[in-house]
Amino acid sequence: MNNLKAIVIGAGMGGLTAGLALKQAGYTVEVYDRVSELRPAGAGISLWSNGVKVLNWLGLGAEIAQIGGQMNRMTYFNSVGETLTDFSLESLVQRVGQRPYPVARTDLQQMLLQAFGVDQVQLKSRCVGVEEDETSVTALFEDGRKATGDVLVAADGTHSILRQYVLGQTLERRYVGYVNWNGLVEASPALAPVNSWVIYVGQHQRASLMPVGGNRFYFFFDVPLPKGTPNQPEQYRAELSKHFEGWAEPVQRLIQTLDPLKTNRVEIHDLDPLQTLVRGRVALLGDAGHSTAPDLGQGGCQAMEDGAVLAQCLCTNTLGVVDALQRYEAKRCDRVAKVILGARKRSEMTHGHNPERTRQWYAELKQEDGGKILDAIATTILAGPFQ
Ligand SMILES: Cc1cc2nc3c(=O)[nH]c(=O)nc-3n(C[C@H](O)[C@H](O)[C@H](O)COP(=O)(O)OP(=O)(O)OC[C@H]3O[C@@H](n4cnc5c(N)ncnc54)[C@H](O)[C@@H]3O)c2cc1C
Q1: Strand, helix or coil at 1?
Q2: Is 291 in the pocket of ligand 1 (CB under 6 A)?
Q3: What gap in Å lies between CA 66 and CA 70, rounded to an integer?
Q4: 23 phi and psi, to 5 degrees?
Q5: Using CB atoms within 10 A as the burial measure, which of 54, 143, 179, 231 is most buried?
Q6: Are strands 196-202 and 205-212 parallel, antiparallel or unpaired?
Q7: Which residues of the chain have pLDDT under 50?
């Protein structure tokens, strides 16, 4: 379909990818975000090869290679620093055809913004509702403004208000059962080999470092905790020191190195898979349509895949917007459901949902030569829209 006008609500990685894909398809695109300054929540993200492929398709391959980290190996240690398994990622890259790029979120967002047009994102625009008729759809903003187009992309994140419009009901997110601290530190061999993704596991917890561009590590800690524990940055160091007492020296060093005021502490939630992603001319995209635990590192990658598939459905079909969105839904529902359920299962295994299974996993890691882990990662990547 030619000459469409798309209204995109949300300038996160999902909304911007969709906006860019639709713009490149020749559509008029307006992107709106509620904030007055775009600052992504969270520090880093592992952009697996399926996400990178979407960026390659959009012509951003050289840019993401520039800002992404060189992650060549993967190493699991136990809590006291004994190696459980250590292997190269090269066979994964050869199999799927593209390197993964862990990246700082602000760098990723800047790259997408520059590509879309920084001045073309309308800030201070909180969408509060939608109206649609036979021929158009209109976003309603808090301050009374309206924006009308042929299609509306609801990329308003995990707390989406547009989800309610699409589904006709409000859904509660589900607490996955653990708290995640994350941030960035300067890369240093005293913390981890600078081109490896390093993960310490034990006591149903994880501590991890992965290289992002700019000579930095993206780090995270996971600890199973009840919902609602206090979130006080001045306590982060003490809290982590307590949870990771007795863990290996690099973990202790990381806790002392991190800047608590630039560290995020998040209670991890997901959403049961949805059977519906569209209503009329409105399509849910990214976390608005499928919030997943980060245990497969796929939430943002799926948002990017959504953007590419949505643009392809609109471009390659001629029976109208409503029909094209139904095709988008048909292509995306199973894919994102598998990711949500896979991440949930992995989270349960990692975080001691069944302590015997977690103990077994630690034992399996000792026997692992990388084959099974890379096979699982490759299978997820290759189920995406770009083979
Ligand atoms: C701890 C953690 C680690 C993660 N690690 C990874 C990883 O390694 N790899 C990976 O691929 N994914 C990862 N994810 C998931 C990833 O962060 C999300 O899937 C991704 O940010 C979703 O992008 P989005 O554009 O859908 O939503 P968001 O990035 O949340 O963007 C939504 C945008 O919509 C705006 N907005 C919200 N409501 C309104 C409104 N009413 N009107 C206007 N604008 C509105 C917001 O201001 C925001 O800018 C992780 C998530 C967490 C929590």
Answers
A1: coil
A2: no
A3: 10
A4: -65, -45
A5: 54
A6: antiparallel
A7: none
What pLDDT sits at residue 73?
Answer: 98
Residue nearest to atom 32 of ligand 1 (CA): 157
Task: Determine contact, residues 180/220, Cβ cutoff 8 Å.
Answer: yes
107 Cβ closer than 6 Å to some ligand 1 atom: no
The one-letter amino acid at 47: L
Q: Residue 125: phi, psi to the nearest 5?
A: -130, 85
Query: In CATH, what class is 5-173+270-382?
Result: alpha beta
The residue ranges of DSSP E strands in the chain, in sequence order, are 5-9, 28-32, 44-47, 73-78, 83-88, 101-104, 121-122, 127-132, 137-141, 146-149, 151-154, 174-186, 196-202, 205-212, 216-224, 264-270, 278-279, 282-284
CA of 153 from ligand 1 middle (Å) equals 14
Q: What pairing do the DSSP bridges indicate for beta strands 146-149 and 101-104?
A: unpaired
Contact 256, 201 (CB under 8 A): no
Structure tokens at 271: 């959403």
Q: How confident is the model at residue 387, as a pLDDT?
A: 87
Residue 142: what are its φ and ψ, rounded to 5°? -50, -40
The whole-angstrom separation of Cα 178 and Cα 17 is 29
Q: How far apart are CA 14 and CA 302, in angstroms?
A: 8
According to the model, what pLDDT value does residue 148 have?
98
Spans of all domains in the chain? 5-173+270-382
Torsions phi, psi of 310, nearest 5? Answer: -60, -45
Tokens 């840019």 found at: 63
- Token pair 């409000």 is found at 170
pLDDT of residue 1: 87
CA 101 to CA 71: how far, in whole Å? 7
Cα–Cα distances in Å, from 227 out to 194, 237, 268? Answer: 34, 20, 9
